[in-house]
Amino acid sequence: MEGVPGTLFVVGSPIGNLEDLTPRAARVLGSVAAVAAEDTRRTRGLLSHLGVHPRLLSLPAEAERERSEAILRVLRDGADVALVTDAGMPGISDPGTHLVGRCLDEDIPVRVVPGPSAALAALVVSGFAADRWTFEGFLPRRGRTRAERLAAIAADPRPSVVFESPRRTAATLADLSDACGSERSAVVARELTKVHEEVLRGPLARLAGDLAERELKGEVAIVIEGAPPPAAPQVDDALLAEEGRSLTATGMRAREAAAEVARRHGVPANRVYSAMLR
C-alpha cells in the first residue's frame, strides 16, 4: 500500500436522543473526509444537526461487502472515514464487521469512538444481574435454528438480550414463554431514550398476552432473566445416616463424619448428625 492510509473511526450514534451523541463523536464526524452510513438519509439528518457536511458513502447491510470496496479506496488514499449506523454501535446487529475486518487485514488503522447501545441500555433498565449476560441480536424467523436459539436462551443462567421488530414482538414473547416457561421474568424496552420510551416488566406469558392486543411501534429490545439454578436433589435422612455411620466405622468421630457427609450432599451438618443419632 503506497503512502499512509487514513483511519477508520467506528462511531457510536444516538439510539434516539440526539443529546446522547458524545462531544468526541461530534468532533470526529466534523473532521473526517467521508462518513460511511447504513442509511445515508438518516445520517444526513444527524450531520445536519451538527452543522457538518462530509461526503456520504452508503454501506447498507445487504450490500456491505460490495460497498466496502469504495470506502477502502478512500482510506487507502489517506483520507479518514467515520463509520456509523442508523443507531448504536456499528457491527452490533448492524453493518460494519466486514469493513473493520478488511481494514485490519490491510493494516488500515481502526479506532472506536464509543457511544450509546440499545442492548446495554435495555440490560441496565431491566434490573437483572448484569455481571454476565449474553446478546442474541435478532432471532431467526422460523425453523430448527430458531428453536435451537430459544432452547439455548431457556437454559442459559445469564440474562439474554434480544432485538425484535414491533410487529413480531408478541409472537417472539409467546415463543420465549413456551421455551423458558410462562413465569420466567422478562422486560420489553421500547423506544429507549426517545419521547415515547416504554419499559414493561413481567412474566413472559403475561407480556405476550398484553402485547398481542396492542399495535407496537419503534425499536424493541427484550431482556429475558437467566435460568434459575437447578434444584438440589433431595436426599433421604436414612441415606445420610448410613453414610455417616460408615465413616464412623473407619474411626472418624461422629461430628467429623456428619460434616463430611453434609459437604458431599450440600445439606446442614446438624441434619446429618441428628439422622445418625436417630
What does this protein structure show overall?
With 278 residues, this protein is α/β, with parallel strands linked by helices. It contains 11 helices and 10 strands. The protein has helices at residues 23-31, 40-50, 64-76, 97-105, 118-126, 143-155, 169-180, 204-212, 237-248, 254-265, 269-277, and strands spanning 8-11, 34-37, 55-58, 81-84, 110-113, 134-138, 160-164, 185-190, 198-203, 220-224. The strands form 2 sheets. It has a 5-stranded parallel β-sheet with strand order 3-2-4-1-5, sandwiched between helices. α9 (237-248) crosses α10 (254-265) and α10 (254-265) crosses α11. The radius of gyration is 27 Å and the shape is elongated. The model has no long low-confidence stretch (mean pLDDT 94).
